[in-house]
């Protein structure tokens, strides 16, 4: 039997399989589960347990950025401008989000 806490988590958590590697994407902000206003700017964390990941990856998600704030030279349709799979996974929930890696090299 599964504990009720596992069926209904207290904080948002997603199990991810990106490029054949499993990991956990989560937030410590429980308001993301119940208040859509909390989705303006928030933090997500990713941990894979892989040897090469020595620290939890800290991401800042901004779901209300404007098109004029993006780099004008950036052409997302260009095959040379590829997005990390982590960003693509996050954008399945927040389609037009701006994702900051906070100084960490993008993984996956």
UniProtKB/TrEMBL annotation:
It catalyses: Thiol-dependent hydrolysis of ester, thioester, amide, peptide and isopeptide bonds formed by the C-terminal Gly of ubiquitin (a 76-residue protein attached to proteins as an intracellular targeting signal). One of its GO terms (biological process) is protein K48-linked deubiquitination. One of its GO terms (molecular function) is cysteine-type deubiquitinase activity. Residues 63-86 are annotated as: Disordered. Its EC number is 3.4.19.12. Residues 5-103 form the Deubiquitinating enzyme MINDY-3/4 conserved domain. Keywords: Hydrolase, Protease, Thiol protease, Ubl conjugation pathway. Residues 63-73 have a biased composition (Basic and acidic residues). It comes from the Eukaryota. InterPro entries: MINDY-3/4_CD, MINY3/4. Belongs to the MINDY deubiquitinase family. FAM188 subfamily. Hydrolase that can remove 'Lys-48'-linked conjugated ubiquitin from proteins. This is Ubiquitin carboxyl-terminal hydrolase MINDY. It comes from Galbula dea.
């Amino acid at each position: 039997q599964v504990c009720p806490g596992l069926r209904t988590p207290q904080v948002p958590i997603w199990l991810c399989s990106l490029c054949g590697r499993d990991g956990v994407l989560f937030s410590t902000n429980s308001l993301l589960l119940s208040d859509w206003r909390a989705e303006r700017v928030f933090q997500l964390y990713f941990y894979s347990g892989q040897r090469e990941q020595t620290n939890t990856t800290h991401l800042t998600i901004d779901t209300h950025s404007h098109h004029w704030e993006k780099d004008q030279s950036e052409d997302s349709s260009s095959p040379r401008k590829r997005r990390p799979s982590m960003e693509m996974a996050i954008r399945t929930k927040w389609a037009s989000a701006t994702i900051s890696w906070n100084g960490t090299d993008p993984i996956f």
